[in-house]
């Protein structure tokens, strides 16, 4: 709850007017980060990209598993001020919503978004320099219209990089230690359960399986976040 309140407060200060037209949005149109349609779209990109990334390295989910995942994800949405009624009711409706948005002029790319996207893919502000397969996979998953708008190259060399990732990541990823592979929202409850037992064995196991204190979570987060959503104007 504390984290969601902090995000809400940060979003409250992000507002203004568009300095130039972007997609279907005219110059001077008001925007704010806590506007409901904007919140819903950011939530949708997180839900969809998580499925894309998961199924790239793990066996595909069944329709029921997708439905369950989406229903449970709505709890997270509520923490950031999105009521269930504002979201598509089920997974099938969710897919229709995202497909319509990708084709809609509600999504547009300007120079600021383009520069930010290229910065994300080049590792600006971090010590990590993303490999070619990282950039190629992002371009591969980007809808063609937006890939062109972001000026993301996707040629024969990039196709080969995606094939390499498809052939290797599904083997490599499950072997990554939990300490690096699992992130805070999953590991913290396990850590709390281990700590409450008060046994040395439980504490040792928490370090081995990834349920370690929050200070270690950013490491796993950086690895799991290799399939970034590029910023798109809404």
Short description:
The protein is an all-alpha fold. Helices cover 62% and strands 3% of the residues.
The overall pLDDT, averaged over residues, is 80
Roughly what fraction of the amino acids lie in strands?
under 5%
Number of helix segments?
A: 12
Number of strands: 2
Write the layout of secondary structure elements.
Blueprint: H1 2-12, E1 15-17, E2 30-32, H2 36-57, H3 63-79, H4 91-103, H5 111-122, H6 132-141, H7 144-149, H8 156-172, H9 178-181, H10 184-197, H11 200-209, H12 217-224
Antiparallel strand pairs: 1-2
Helix pairs in contact: 2-3, 6-8, 10-11
Overview of this structure, please?
This protein folds into 2 domains: 2-103, no CATH class; 110-234, no CATH class. The protein is 62% helix and 3% strand. The protein contains 12 helices and 2 strands. Strands 1-2 form a two-stranded antiparallel ribbon.
